[in-house]
Amino acid sequence: MVLGVVAWASTGLYTVQPGEEAVLRRFGQFNSVAGPGLHWFVPNPIGSRVVVRKDEVRRLELGFRGGTSVPAESLMITGDENIVDVQLLVQYDIKDTAEFLFNVVDPDGITMRDVAETSLRQVVGARNIDDVLTTGKEEVQSSTRIQLQSLLDTYQAGINIIQVQLQNVNPPTQVQDAFDDVFSSPIPIPRR
User: Fold this and answer.
1) What is the pTM of this model?
2) HSE of 99 in the Cβ direction (CA atoms, 13 Å)?
């Protein structure tokens, strides 16, 4: 009996590597967060732990996967009611492990994708097509990053946005040729 209790108690030993955090639960309820090092916590079935890489830079591709376009995410309406095809790359890490694991459903998946898409659509929808395609790309990236971080903080998702980068911004493929003709045509100069 004593050996069984000692063997069970020894399963509570665990190691957390640098850059990781362990979230500890007792009877399924959040208990605490443990940093790097050797630790002991009450083992199963009373206690459990989830070890998460906190310093890992994660990425989200919005409007594309690899090299393939995803039009359902990338086609957006601008403020002047034009359609633009926008692809976005978001890099982020975890700023609060407990919030990341417990406050939102699938923070690395559908939640992050939905919040990023919402933020980008709001920013693109407030600008005209020329700003999005040419001169205002930096501002679109900056505004999207601010909007995205604000929404994630409101949800207490425990995510820190590191960088937001526009990958491709083009008119939709159906009108690309007409758009190219407009930009390649010489502008007539009025004579006096």
Assistant:
1) 0.82
2) 13
